[in-house]
Amino acid sequence: MGNERFCAPSGLGCCPILTCINSQSGPMQKPPPHPQEQDRLEALARLAILDTGPEDSYDRLVLLASQVCDAPIALISLVDADRLWFKARVGLNVCEVNRDDGFCSFAIHTPDDVTVVPDMQLDARFADHPLVIGPPHIRFYAGAPLVVDGLPMGTLCVNDLQPRSLEAWQVQSLRLLAKRVVRLLEDKPPTDGRHDV
Question: What predicted TM-score, i.e. pTM, was given to this entire model?
């Protein structure tokens, strides 16, 4: 029992933070920072979207992604400096995870492609990941990048609890839905990146 890894919800209210607890250090790969990380974070801050409340327009898009891809989990995931924050979600009752624990932290490195991982246990980046070998035992990932002004802000992604693939039309649909998310982000009045105290 000494080698188990598990994820425990923490935080207050109905939207806890998922804290991945490793009882033994392992070879889990950490995602590298994006080559334009500072520019990317500044652009994300200017969108003024982080820590905002639920919005129907975003919720409808993740529901569509879940239905189109026949996936139990779908997220609009934004990659912040030290966390992945979920603007909208289906099938996961947490609002953020540590950046090092987020699959989308890898996907932002291929902003021109939909990242598809048919079986995460067979991918060296994720085989030892706490969310793969422990609850909720995620096995499949597909993430379409959310690119604003040439920089990846995060992904519209889907997960499944069993290995699988997507049809070509599903990949294209996920890409088109991601573009709708980007349009919503761009239509939101931007800020200078500073938060009122």
Answer: 0.82
